[in-house]
Amino acid sequence: MCKAITPGIDYSLYLVTGRELLPEGITYIESLKQAIEGGVTVVQVREKKADTGEFLQIARESKELCDQHNIPLIVNDRIDIALAIRATGVHLGQTDMPVAVARSLLPPDTIIGVSCNTPEQVEKAVQDGADYVGLGAVYGTQTKDVSGKIIGPRKVGLRLEKLDGTNVKSVVIGGIKTSNVLRTLHVSVSTSGRTVDGVAVVSDIVASKTPRESARTLASLVKAFKLASSAPALARPFSRQLSDSLLHDAAALLDVVRKHSPLIHQITNTVVTNQSANATLALGASPIMATSPYEMEDLQKATGALLINFGTITDKEGMLQAGKFANLNKKPVVFDPVGVGATAYRRSTASELLNTWQASIIKGNAAEIGALADSVEVQAKGVDSGGSFKDPAAVIRQLARKERCVVVLSGVVDYITNGEDVVALHNGHPLLGQITGSGCMLGTAVATFAAAERLRTLESEGKGADEEGKLVSGDMLVAAVGGVLALTVASELAAAREDVKGSGTFLPALIDELGKLTPEVIASRAKAEVFSP
Ligand SMILES: Nc1ncnc2c1ncn2[C@@H]1O[C@H](COP(=O)(O)OP(=O)(O)OP(=O)(O)O)[C@@H](O)[C@H]1O
Ligand SMILES: Cc1ncsc1CCO
């Protein structure tokens, strides 16, 4: 019997079937039954090769099973089959029946979904009266030829914007699996804060020998993400008055670094590898400067945080793998896109890296941040910056919202934002500008403090209920403030020493001062301003 389930479809875990993907030893119906038991919330029957009779038979069996579990069933493309089995809905591609014609043929209340690749297609689907849109292909997939149609997770938000002010629902589709689902959900947000309603999955469930477990894991991750993202965006309400406690908390992370000595994995450039490793040790953490892609899976289980600095890109595959496994292990990832504005190769590599993993913090000088923010205001001079922004707070806020992470803009004044509040730090010394790799060491210090902030959060709050749905624990804004202050305060102390005669003697003195630093000295010397929106 047809159940009245149309008003509130739960799109959280949307299974698209594909019999050609079934592994040996499991029937279509058994796989579907297990997937539903595992937590699939809506099923679309997709049969690209079957003739009408076979499609009808498969759709009928699927409908019977879905009805038993009160799960809505959607038919791909075929209005006649949807009508014949009284399906909950139909899903239409861009070259299938137009929405209006489908609507005129189907009973009222039938759900109609449309596959959309571009923002214009989303706009049109909304105008045509679609109930939901399938946005993709997010990643490459073996189940469909999507060449030229991969939008990447960071562009989903542009499509979601077209749903603002409507009640049209959305799912993302194309290569979504357990290993990337959290990251995909995290970054699939419009500027107005709209997130997707669910994820559509094919092979991760259908090709699985244990579809119940695959569906259970995916369903649990989507549920956990929804729970975590329904919490307030900021860990604490933020205001000018709070800047003292912010500075105190940030500085106190130095004690956490020294207590736990976290392993800081750094893929950095050949110019600074040694000095960055020594800066890590001086702060009290433990550096590992590994680059081979073959060890990233193991390494990310043991690390406290990951720094990816592509000053001399020779190991892109290692960078791709490291970030992916850091995300999977919920470790903070700090990205330093050195010289990204200088060459087309650096720009495309930054985009590839950011499409593969989620950065917790992006740090760069004005030229680097400008290049990522698509601003032409500040030009790159190789790895150096040729100026500063008129409104740095606006540029970094916009980038933080676009990339869904904390952004650090280095310069004479360092600016840090989580997309809302902006902290300006006025510490530092001109000698930092006269040694190579001071920005790289800044990235190292930020990664070290990010590891400490994650440990502090896990230690004080334990694995909270929303832990599973987060990419990383802790307030990365506090971590970034702590890391920047550690390096810049140490630079002031080093520059004031009598034995420092210039940039040559400054570098070893800086390492010494990093080693002698205390949270009290950091907090007492911090010169900060906070701008709230
Ligand atoms: N003139 C200055 N006065 C105070 N602090 C400075 C000055 N120049 C640089 N710094 C500090 O040095 C750190 C590195 O910032 P900078 O913007 O120079 O990095 P960068 O251009 O990426 O450096 P590099 O490419 O050498 O690694 C920042 O914390 C910044 O505050
Ligand atoms: C000089 C230089 N060239 C590539 S990376 C690097 C270190 C400072 O960014």
Automatic annotation (TrEMBL):
GO MF term (any one): magnesium ion binding
Residues in Thiamine phosphate synthase/TenI domain copies: 13-205
Catalytic activity of the protein: 2-(2-carboxy-4-methylthiazol-5-yl)ethyl phosphate + 4-amino-2-methyl-5-(diphosphooxymethyl)pyrimidine + 2 H(+) = thiamine phosphate + CO2 + diphosphate; 2-[(2R,5Z)-2-carboxy-4-methylthiazol-5(2H)-ylidene]ethyl phosphate + 4-amino-2-methyl-5-(diphosphooxymethyl)pyrimidine + 2 H(+) = thiamine phosphate + CO2 + diphosphate; 4-methyl-5-(2-phosphooxyethyl)-thiazole + 4-amino-2-methyl-5-(diphosphooxymethyl)pyrimidine + H(+) = thiamine phosphate + diphosphate; 5-(2-hydroxyethyl)-4-methylthiazole + ATP = 4-methyl-5-(2-phosphooxyethyl)-thiazole + ADP + H(+)
Q: Which GO terms describe its cellular component?
A: cytoplasm
| Record carries keyword Ubl conjugation | no
| GO BP terms in the entry | thiamine biosynthetic process; thiamine diphosphate biosynthetic process
The pathway to which it is assigned is: Cofactor biosynthesis; thiamine diphosphate biosynthesis; 4-methyl-5-(2-phosphoethyl)-thiazole from 5-(2-hydroxyethyl)-4-methylthiazole: step 1/1; Cofactor biosynthesis; thiamine diphosphate biosynthesis; thiamine phosphate from 4-amino-2-methyl-5-diphosphomethylpyrimidine and 4-methyl-5-(2-phosphoethyl)-thiazole: step 1/1
Q: Which cofactor does it need?
A: Mg(2+)
Q: Which InterPro entries match?
A: Aldolase_TIM, Hyethyz_kinase, Ribokinase-like, ThiamineP_synth_sf, ThiamineP_synth_TenI, TMP_synthase
Q: Name one Pfam family in it.
A: HK
Its keywords, alphabetically, are: ATP-binding, Kinase, Magnesium, Metal-binding, Nucleotide-binding, Thiamine biosynthesis, Transferase
Residue ranges annotated as coiled coil are none
Q: Which family does it belong to?
A: In the N-terminal section; belongs to the thiamine-phosphate synthase family. In the C-terminal section; belongs to the Thz kinase family.
- Function in brief: Condenses 4-methyl-5-(beta-hydroxyethyl)thiazole monophosphate (THZ-P) and 2-methyl-4-amino-5-hydroxymethyl pyrimidine pyrophosphate (HMP-PP) to form thiamine monophosphate (TMP).
Recorded protein name is HK-domain-containing protein
